[in-house]
Specification:
With about 250 residues, the protein is mainly α. The chain contains eleven helices and two strands; from the N terminus they run ααααββααααααα. The chain has a two-stranded antiparallel sheet.
Length: about 250
């Protein structure tokens, strides 16, 4: 679940909802958790690989399965490039991976020549990892998961210890854009996108030796853990903002 969404989600959500972005992350997590509960139940009853496509086939037939399959394929095909571009945009402070432009009053980032080269290498690495097989990928994934958890935890602690301003949560109002901003942040700030990896626990249900135990733990547990992490990150981010920046 944890990908490039955490790099920009806190910033984008705070722009839409202010300090109330904390509520946006919690509500987004609860929404995804409700969907996850359904998938966890189905994954336990029918522990099939590719359950996201197989379940519609069993309940609604071939056309529904075909449509869901294409939607899932498009989603899977676009996630890796999004992750790579997001990471390179974040890493632009170290090298000229992206260039900044203003389009219709909004700042956008596009890949430079160096960015395209690095992005192509990263995508090729993903292909190799997937080609080698699930067992090798599982070992690599375990390392990456602990690495990402460690980095996010370090960031949260650093914000709390070095630059936390409790007044940031009330100086400009807790909900400067009202409830509209809270709900807009869920849909448009990358919050839902940041949770979507929970499906992997269902899509790979056929690979586990004890789906009745492992699928609910994987789906529900991962959403709950990441929801806590994202809320803490948002709290730390809001608190670490410069009060002058928050006021504007």
């Amino acid at each position: 679940i944890i990908g490039s969404g955490w790099l920009f989600g806190a910033l984008n959500a705070s722009r839409e909802a202010g300090p109330a972005a904390i509520i946006s992350w919690a509500l987004g997590g609860i929404m995804i958790l409700l969907i996850g509960l359904v998938y966890a139940e189905l994954g336990t009853m029918f522990p099939l690989s590719g359950g996201v496509v197989r379940f519609p086939h069993m309940s609604f037939g071939g056309f529904a399965s075909y449509t869901t399959g294409w939607i899932t394929w498009v989603a899977c095909a676009t996630v890796a490039p999004i992750e790579v571009e997001g990471a390179l945009q974040y890493a632009t402070k170290y090298a000229a991976f992206t260039s900044k432009h203003t389009v219709n009053g909004q700042i956008v980032h596009t890949l430079t020549a160096l960015g395209y080269v690095v992005a192509a290498i990263a995508m090729a690495a993903f292909v190799v990892i997937n080609y080698i097989g699930i067992r090798w990928f599982a070992h690599l994934n375990n390392v990456l998961v602990w690495w990402k958890l460690a980095i996010i935890t370090l960031v949260v602690i650093a914000f709390f210890v070095t630059a936390f301003h409790g007044s940031n949560f009330s100086s400009a109002g807790f909900r400067p854009n009202g409830w509209q901003g809270v709900f807009t942040a869920i849909a448009t700030s990358g919050i839902v996108f940041s949770y979507l990896g929970f499906r992997q626990g269902v899509e790979l249900a056929g690979e586990t030796n004890n789906p009745r135990r492992n699928v609910p733990i994987a789906v529900i547990g991962s959403v709950v853990i990441t929801m806590i992490i994202y809320v803490l990150l948002q709290v730390a981010f809001i608190g670490a903002l410069n009060p002058r920046t928050l006021a504007t």
